[in-house]
Structure formats: C-alpha cells, structure tokens
Amino acid sequence: MYFLMSAVVAMLSLSSGQTEETAGSADSPAEAERAKPATGFLYKTIKVAGETYAYCVYVPPEYTDQRAWPVILFLHGSGERGSDGFLQTDIGIGRAIRRNHKLCPAIVVMPQCRAGKHWEGEMLELALRCVEAASQEYHFDPDRVYLTGLSMGGAGAWLLGSRMPEAFAAVVPICGFYGQPNVPAAPEPLADLAGQLAKLPIWCFHGDADPAVPVDRSREVVAAVQAAGGSIRYDEIPAGQHNVWDHAYGNAAVWHWLLAQKRAAPAETDP
Q: What value does the mean pLDDT take over residues 45-60?
C-alpha cells in the first residue's frame, strides 16, 4: 500500500503540471462553457481487482482547471456501507456541504466501504484508487490532500494517516478508534501508530457522552500522539453524542484550519 500511495502522490504532481500546460485551449467562450466539467455530487465507478465499486466525488460549483484544488478523502461510518455509491454522502461531510457548500472550496472523494468490511486492507486500497482515478479528471494540488473520517471512518483515518503520513497535509478523525471500539488499544501497537501520526497536523473530535464509541478511544490515541511529540488538537464536546461530526464539519474554523495546511517537504537525504 505504501508504494500505491507513493505512486498516487507522484501522479498528482504530474497531472497538476499537465493540466497547467493544456489549460486555456478552448477556441471560444461557447466551447469553453461546453468543456466545463460537471460539478456537485458526481456518481463514479471504478474497477479494482476485477470488481466494480461505486463512489462519489464532490466538485465545487466554482471549479476550474485553471488552478490546482485541495482534495479531501472522506471515510464514512459503518452505517453507510454498501454498494449504491451515494449513501456515504448523506452523513457527515456530504451533509455539511449541502447545508453550506461555501465552507468547502475543495474536491471531496467519497469511496464506499462494502457491507461487512472495514476501512482496512482492500477497502483502504479502494479509497486510494478512487483518489487516483479522480486525479485523472480534476486538477489536484498534491501538497493539499487531506484525510478525514467519522466513527469507523475515523478509525480508518487514524490507520491510513499512520501508514502514509508523507501523503497527507492534515488529518481530522472524528469519534474514531484504534483497534476495536470497545476495547482499549494495546500499548505497543498504539505507540507505533502514534509515532507515525506525530508527523502530521491533526484535529480530533469526540463527544464525551458518545454511546457508540467510548470517548476513551480518542483520548488514548491523542495521548499517544502527544507523547510522541505530535502536533494534535483535541476537541472533546461536553455532552456530545456520536454525531459530533455535525459540530466538526459545520464549524468554519475547522475548514479554515484544514485548508491552510500543506504537506511537508520530504526530508533531504545525502547523495
């Protein structure tokens, strides 16, 4: 999976340059209007290992290929699993965008995890393939690729962010967990996870009255990242239930912070 994401990041950089070279090729305003990409919540399909998956890409109404756009990979929760390609747009980030799309001047890639599966292994590979496919259609900024998820998707965000910290500019996990939602994380694997997450800017949210995923699951990951020297902000919402994602994604300050982050330059190595 490391090599897959490295290829995605390299491809994003390449496609960014290609878009800049070809921009402005329309011969007339009418032709330019006809060539303008569709915007809004767009249904897509992708084939991975011989199986076809449906997913969604949100493209803001002001999108133009004349500049590079930030990209958000959103991982949904367990209740939105399926194969229809749209259910995952109804909870969390999709609902926030529908209420106020001006909060999110970014492209959002929303894969859908299959029923009975979780954001790990082949499903995380699917998520990365969806980002790769979308980058072939839209002008992505490779230094402003963000990762967020809620509940089961929050767990996926912790996991994917730890495995590929070089690929993302920031991570926003919401009411997530590491391991199992009702079981404390094992100390050594948690320390390994936190050591990688410490390389990323993170803003985490959890409600202290969450009945589905105990707040201790976020507290333990946050404490481990802090112990590893990471830059992490943690908002614990008093009396907050499981749906604290409405608070997070509806907060203009969260969007402002997220979209201001840029991917760190890779460390130089001696020749």
A: 97
